[in-house]
Specification:
With 180 residues, the protein is an alpha+beta fold. It has helices at 2-20, 35-42, 47-50, 146-174, and strands at residues 23-31, 60-63, 75-80, 85-94, 98-104, 114-126, 129-140. The protein has four helices and seven strands. A seven-stranded antiparallel sheet has the order 1-7-6-5-4-3-2, with helices on both faces. The longest helix has 29 residues, at 146-174.
Length: 180
């Protein structure tokens, strides 16, 4: 009886430790929308509008639509031009402030190196503008793949994120109303 409980506790501790030791990239941009409006515009944005092929990564072609995309626990599948997919699940949703999701069930090459990934977005008003911060953390399957994952995040994923956040900036500017 004690041995299964100990194994379960160690497994949970190992998962928590893995989450802390993920490989992350962070990008940020400013948008000409108030935080709440930027949040409401960005969170449900069609992913195919901002994730285009580049840096050795495929474009997103769509999702299994969940409308509205605004509640913890909601899941959807993200589809790539290669025919691959991944599942996203909302883990946090604080309108105008913070949004997070977990990505898993990869069919892309990420399935070989990552257990899952966590995307996090923050919005804050600063000197009459909204700063949007996006951090994406991949949790490696094991310590052996960590260097490969770190190389991928630095040289492929972060530039892909930067291109996507630049499109978010352009999209928000096209929908801007003066900030108050």
């Amino acid at each position: 009886m004690l041995l299964p409980l100990l194994a379960l506790a160690l497994s949970a501790a190992a998962q928590d430790a893995a989450a802390v030791k993920g490989v992350a990239a962070t990008v940020e941009a400013t948008v000409p929308l108030p935080p709440a409006q930027a949040f409401r515009h960005l969170v449900p944005i069609p992913l195919e509008r901002i994730f285009r092929a580049g840096y050795g990564l495929p474009a997103i072609t769509g999702t299994s639509v969940v409308a509205p995309w605004n509640a913890v626990g909601q899941s959807r599948h993200v589809y790539f031009e290669t025919g691959d997919s991944a599942r996203e699940t909302i883990t946090h949703y604080r309108e105008g402030e913070y949004f997070a999701y977990r990505v898993e069930e990869f069919t892309l090459a990420a399935k070989y190196v990552a257990q899952y990934a966590v995307g996090e977005w923050w919005w804050r008003q600063e000197q009459g503008r909204t700063v949007v911060v996006w951090r994406y953390t991949f949790v490696p399957k094991n310590f052996l793949v960590r260097p490969f994952l770190a190389f991928f995040v630095r040289h492929r994923w972060r530039p892909y994120m930067q291109a996507a956040v630049a499109r978010v900036q352009q999209d928000a500017a096209a929908h801007a109303q003066p900030m108050r």
